[in-house]
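SEQUENCE-TO-STRUCTURE ENTRY
===========================
What this section holds: a protein sequence and its matching fold, both as plain text.
Question of interest: how does this chain fold, as expressed in backbone structure tokens?
***
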Amino acid sequence: MLKSRHKLQGKARSQTFNRLIPNIITVGALCAGLTAVRFAISEQWEFAMIAIVVAAILDALDGTIARLLKASSNFGAELDSLSDVIAFGVAPGLIIYFWTLSEIGGFGWAAGLFFVVCCALRLARFNSTLETRPRHGNDFFMGIPAPGGALLALLPILVSRELNVEFFQHPAVTGPWIVLIALLMVSQIPTYSLKRLRVPQRLFLPMLVLIGLLAAGLAGAPWHTLLILSLVYLGSFPFSYRSFKKLQAQAEAEQLEDNQAEADEVSEEDSSGTRLREV
């Protein structure tokens, strides 16, 4: 009897390999982030940026695959947050520090630490507000998401490489830049969530063509393509802010109408009860 009970418990606790796939991808993103630090130590900046891009791609895949395989779990969510802090907080902060901020000593280290802390705070806020997020905010992030913040933090390296301008390598530029990106990560500025982006039917084919062009650009001219994508992403902030405010105003108007309707119903019920008492 005891042996059979232990066997049943073992079967109940066992998991199929498919349910491990999202966690394996998350661990891959974590390893890619740490590998970027290794490349930065050896001053292989291009490989360091490639590793961060790989981590961002893996991070975009793990959640989607978890939902497709119905393998979402609390363990996976916690592992994903830990991986994001390291791959998109610690790794970019160290890369920028080794690249240029180390020249100003403690001030450069403080800027890198500030970026890591803001990344951790941004992820903690995201996890704590999942259940209380308003419906009109489902298509947006509050602040820059961690992968986007990591890629934008490394933008000076990309610009310096492509334009061959040493100005962007100066600590007086990279220090304030990384602090600015850190503040944007913990800000309340709404940014588009590409995972929940709805594509109208008439734009479905043009979107596929655009994705094909993007893939071709990344294959043929990866650094130019990443630079253009980063600038386009930065330029989308005013549009996302306007879209969010418009949806927020609509939601507030609908809520006001619902409250007014409820008040009218209560008022009618009170007046009908008063009439019955008078009769």
Remarks:
- DSSP finds eleven helices and two strands in the chain.
- The beta strands are 140-142, 190-192.
- The mean pLDDT is 78.
